[in-house]
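Human: Can I borrow your eye for a moment on a structure tokenisation matter? Separate attempts, laid side by side, tell us more than any discussion would. Could you pick a protein and write out its sequence and tokenised fold? No explanation is needed for now; the record alone will do.

Assistant:
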Amino acid sequence: MVTRKVLSIFSHVLFYAALPTCLHAGIADWFTSLTPKAQEAKNRLEGLDTLIESALKEYEVPGLAVGILVDGQLIYSKGFGYRDVAAKKNVTPDTLFGIGSCTKAFTSFVAGTLIDEGLLDWDTQVLDVLPSFRLYDEYATNHMTLRDLLTHQSGMPRHDYMWYNSKLTRTELMQRLRYLEPASQLRERYHYNNLMYMTAGYLMEGLTNKTWEELVRERIFTPLKMKKSNFTIEDMQNSSDFAYPYLQKNNQLVRIAFRDISVIGPAGSINSNITDMARWVEMQLAQGVYDKTPLINQSTLQEMHSPQVVVSGTPEHKEAVLSTYGIGWGVLSYRGHYHVSHDGGAEGFTSVVTLLPNEGIGLIILTNKNLTTLPRFLSAEIIDRLLGLPHLNWYQEGLDNYLKTKASQQQLQQEEDLTRKKETLPSHDLKDYVGQFEHPGYGTVDVALKDGKLALTFNHITSTLNHWHYDMFVVSEESEDLLFSRIGTKITFRMNFHGEIEDLVIPFEPGTADIVFKKKPSNEFESLSYLQKFTGLYQIYGVTIEIAVKDQHLVALIPGQPVFELLPNAENTFIVKGKTGYTVRFVLDNNIIQEVLLIQPYGAFSAKPKR
């Protein structure tokens, strides 16, 4: 699902060239005698078992499964370590793992089959299929194509926290897209985005009147005989052979809860194993043919494996100086070889699927540890062996990076602490920060006071806040273990002109400005009975103002001026919609209105009830 580009020189990859006819063999032929090329490749893997067993310990990964195909034959299919550490249950080639963003290639493949049928085109405009589609940017809304959705050129950054752990439906997610700010213009640059893959799946659902899951099962799982692969945590756990998810926490390996990400399914919800994924890889290498049956046109598949957009950023290694993205795959040249790949990161699982089409090589690595770098570095080690390339010791480089990252985390925390203004206090009593804060795209954040500290709940996950400095607080604890921990995240409360807490600012999306949540008035301030007590006529400087209720909202009617809507802000206090710094405050004595203060940026004026 959410891809972590740990070693981006391998994260994106490609495919051209003619392939050997033996790649058209079905999986039933894997276990016949190996071709000379496949046998030679297998010989080059001598000692791989020992390397992987050592890697599990040094990278602190509980379990791992590897599948390697050469010349259309599965030359290596093994499990290592534990799928369940406590019960000491071993990983096998049939053990199910979450494959995360490796799912994206399945979504783009389904799109390709619909294109072959003439129902779509890569450059079909989204609005032509989904008339209700709306983005923050009008130009992007009107010109977005299927290709844009599937190549991360929408201009939209991730905005992953908007959907993460929410109970929203795909339809509800679609309705909220219009409130999410872009990071750039349409097709201006590459921005990896799960929501756009969800949109592509939703588009195909509307076109076919079938769910995305039904389309994948019908067009991929069934013809490839991927009998164990599925889309949900429930189906995964109903299997007799599945891996539990783990992460590193306080220098210990901890089993974490499964997380349901089905709402974003087209971006990352598939669960699979080596046995099933080997069939998927075999078909990819055979130019879309499986068991002598074509599942997709060769030209359509080649378009998916071809560069579509350059991934910005300086090269991280001299062995791959240009990174691009195809359609559901990353594309690059690795040490002079076309390399097509995708990483996957789901809650407690990390995976990689790699194709070297010119050489007829395919590779699948699945693990049950959260965002581990092992699959990426191990895949590079294996590829170098299979190609007979000079050894670069990717395994050791990855291990060194892993250990450096662990050591630097504590140092980074210490350096950040130096920026803290330690002698400051919050501007308000903690109870004044309590309430609900809303954003039209992200939804509602609840802030409560618990055991003397602020507790922030968003999408059913509660974070404990410690005071950092001034009106800034920091997440110190979380109620759940997350794919990306929010511990250390700084959030800021902001005041309005009258010194009242009005906004909550959270850096949920680094690609855009911080997300601003507006404080929502208490429900008691929105009831009709509450609003009606302020209605009536008021006089100021000989002018009569009428306060009335219209469409369940309080409004001010002033002769010769537009209708002003008054929004509850606090007890007996309203802000004027669309007028920054304008507030209406009713002054009561024994529940009887004595005056109305019309507060503006340049002064306050008193209006008296007309009795």
Q: What stands out?
A: DSSP finds 16 helices and 31 strands in the chain. The first helix runs from residue 36 to 43. Confidence is low (pLDDT under 50) at residues 1-31.
